[in-house]
Q: What sequence folds into this?
């Protein structure tokens, strides 16, 4: 096993195919394929499953990839320390539900990150896809919430995926509404108060179960319901249609403007917002920096971090 072989595996996963990886590595596809087969033979495992749809990481391959990334990271640090080499291009990806605070932390990470080259990815995605992203190591971290309603189902899926959930903070339910919405004048609202207004929620794709909803009280019947796929559309509809959505209550005026306000919702539920990661892997330096930025932003709202 060589460092070069480990870099090959990482590049294949990041590129999405053997051909694309070979092009980026400036080697032929057969040479790359042979290098992977030799590594698999030496390790006694199948890193990739070869299907009609292309290469997929096997369960053993997912674990192997995690260790490979750690080895390459440490080798890079050694070279920087003793050979004075230029830092390797940093790659970091996080998948998250539609939270402004997750975006703010990402922005602050990039602003403060001291590197000449990097490739960072932020995916605002559906709940099931977030878990899949971290499982398949497309993202190192996933930001989601648990509640009394969804905890049993999501915790089971997270564990079966070889992941672990780590609590960051607890948030009490709020609604986001336009400053022109009559509800914005109330100190708090009930579910009954929401009935006349359109309820906005994020679509969850093919896994459209109540347990995967980003919004609390997903099983409550809403006479007027609108499903959207992105945060910008949702906030535009909050303003244009006097709609509402249920969320954590943490708003970002920098990202969402000053036309949206947060109003407490009377509810027995609590959002336990945290991150998921591969259970057997530690956090990379970049992931640690991102989580620190996230915690710092949350503290600015006087919310206690776990």
A:
């Amino acid at each position: 096993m060589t460092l070069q072989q480990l870099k090959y595996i990482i590049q294949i996963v990041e590129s999405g195919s053997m051909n694309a990886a070979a092009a980026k590595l400036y080697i032929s596809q057969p040479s790359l394929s042979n290098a992977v087969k030799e590594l698999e033979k030496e390790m006694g495992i199948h890193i990739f499953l070869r299907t009609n749809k292309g290469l997929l990481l096997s369960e053993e391959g997912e674990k192997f990839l995690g260790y490979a990334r750690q080895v390459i990271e440490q080798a890079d640090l050694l070279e920087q320390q003793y050979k004075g080499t230029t830092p390797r291009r940093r790659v970091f990806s996080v998948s998250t539900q539609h939270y402004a605070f997750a975006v703010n932390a990402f922005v602050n990470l990039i602003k403060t990150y001291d590197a000449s080259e990097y490739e960072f990815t932020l995916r605002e995605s559906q709940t099931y896809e977030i878990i899949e992203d971290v499982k398949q190591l497309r993202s190192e971290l996933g930001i989601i919430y648990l509640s009394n309603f969804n905890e049993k189902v999501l915790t089971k899926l997270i564990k079966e995926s070889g992941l672990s959930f780590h609590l960051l903070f607890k948030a009490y339910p709020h609604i986001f509404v336009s400053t022109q919405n009559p509800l914005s004048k109330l100190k708090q609202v009930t579910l009954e108060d929401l009935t006349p207004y359109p309820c906005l929620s994020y679509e969850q794709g093919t896994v459209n179960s109540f347990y995967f909803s980003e919004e609390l009280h997903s099983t409550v019947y809403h006479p007027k319901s609108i499903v959207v796929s992105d945060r910008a559309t949702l906030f535009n509809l909050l303003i244009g249609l006097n709609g509402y959505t249920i969320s954590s209550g943490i708003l970002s005026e920098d990202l969402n403007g000053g036309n949206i306000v947060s109003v407490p919702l009377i509810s027995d539920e609590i959002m336990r917002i945290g991150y998921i990661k591969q259970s057997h892997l530690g956090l990379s330096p970049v992931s640690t920096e991102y989580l620190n930025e996230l915690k710092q932003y949350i503290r600015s709202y006087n919310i206690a971090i776990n």
